[in-house]
Amino acid sequence: MSGYATGIVAILCINLIFAYAIFVTAAAGQLNLGGAGFQAIGAYTAAWLSSNAGQPVIVTIPLAMVTTALIGFLISFPVLRTRGVYMVLATFAFGQFVSGFLLRSPTFGGAIGMVVSDYVGVGLLVAAAIITTGLVFFLMASRLGLAIRSIHDDEPVSTIMGVNVRAVQVTTFTIGGALAGLSGALYAHHFSFVEAQYFNSLLSIYVLLFVLIGGTQTAWGPLVGSLFFTLLPEVLRVGGSWRYVVFGVAIVAMMVLRPQGIVTRELVSRLSPRNWFGSRPAPAARLADGG
Amino acid sequence: MSDAAALGRPKPVIGKGVLIGLACAAAIGLAMLLGGRVITQQIISGLMLGSIYMTVAVAFTLTIGVLNFLNFTIPTLFMLTGMVAWGLLARGYLAGFGGAAWFVALMAGIAVAILASLVVERFTFRYLKTRHGDATEHAIPLVSSLGFLLIFEHLVLIALGSEAQRFPVPFKADIYFGGLVIGLPQLASLALALGIVAGLTYVLKRTRMGRALRTIAESPDTASLLGVEVARIVPIVFILTGLLSGVAAALFTVNYGDVSPFMGDHIGTKAIAAMVLGGLGSVWGAVAGGLIVGLAETLSIHFLGGDSVQMVVWGMLLLVIILRPQGLFGASSIGKGKM
Question: Which of A272, A278, B38, B315 is the most exposed place for a label (fewest CB within 10 A)?
């Protein structure tokens, strides 16, 4: 593979894992606009363990995941007291605070950033992305996944049906934290350098867009969203800023024409091999889309 | 009963505003007495900066209060005003106006911001009537506004380049008062910003249009049943948003003399902090929040150094969100998600 293609594949894998981190919480109806903060925690944990404590990758990546998961768990309690727009703002504040803290902290190199000693090749990134995708599909098909989807569609009814909404939401924040930590650790090890300025509010915005444009109903959403977002700018190949204008227009048009995201349960069921020969979509799928 | 309560309970809000004002003035006066000249100068600069944050924060809080919509185009509306004004001057389109050209340029910038805001309204609200009834639905206008953020920012980059530019302000009048430097334009901007907010409060409280806005905040469907023409009132929110962002940008440009395509990002995020600090949907909360963030910024630069601003402001905000999610002055049941 050429260096250019390798670069795109690496970014695509990291974005995909990161998108799944945000997706897991969004699938249970919570929007996290502080994704960059969680990713930064993972990246800096891995960077510090690798460069300052001399730990190998086999130790740094799991520890980065555990640290970020723990922070996701802890931050979920105050964040879950808020709803809707307020939750978007609370998570946004968290992301801003983390990057502000890292910018200021001499332990983590402040504004200069940190060099990461161990390098991880693109092969491991692809493997991690595939495993993450598989795990999230499994999660969404599990009993917990059913609870997550029911909260997404109707929280009061989920409560009536016996779903422990708070426990599920805390779990999704924890899982989301672990995945964001993984994407951050892989970023740190692949690019061998981390700086606080990279983990800014724009990154949080982009990753939330991956998820919302892809669709929060099924685990296909983030996959399609990240592919769309990472590859569209490459495909457009129009001069510099124009591609972002086209991109912005695509986002606005998307929200007008298909606000529930590219992939919905109804679409998945229609494309499923079981229904290729004109059979009807599964009743559950039709109900879920309010058809 | 949430956003609307914050925007306009009949009487207490003005009382609350006065109360907040007195409390702030007392605290600041005490700090000035104890801190001496250097601190006093920092506090004055902080209040001036705060008046810009305050105006933008009011724009944010208005769209959230009435429409439950976090409008991410506000930073770009701010930037559009400054860059359009600079572009008109730099390309020499306003040479005919002589000495008043800078003023005409800023007015044109504000007009462009209002027009852009109306374009945003058309595509975030006018056509978004579909409801798929799930938990992330309230994010649809938010995502559209992020799309517009990309569009406007990059159109400006294409048209005017990415460099920071010097905006020529023909006067530089400072008042020297007991060894303190007070910029005349800064003082004027504080007064103007406060005046606009007071005017807005009056409109929301006392006029027919204000009542319609508060009814929409309460419940768009009920408002429509009661004869409020929602489709005609909603654009007014966006006109006010454009106006407030534009005026804030004009004041910023006159005060600091710099414009750049990224000038809105910094101001916008600080204004969001100010709004959350004051409480969503509360106009006077946004005023207090803006001034507090301005003060926190200059004082943390003074005591802790330039890098610390982001940490101090957002750390403070995170604490407020954890301890008092409704903000300092907000209603308790905000953000349930309506429109």
Answer: A278
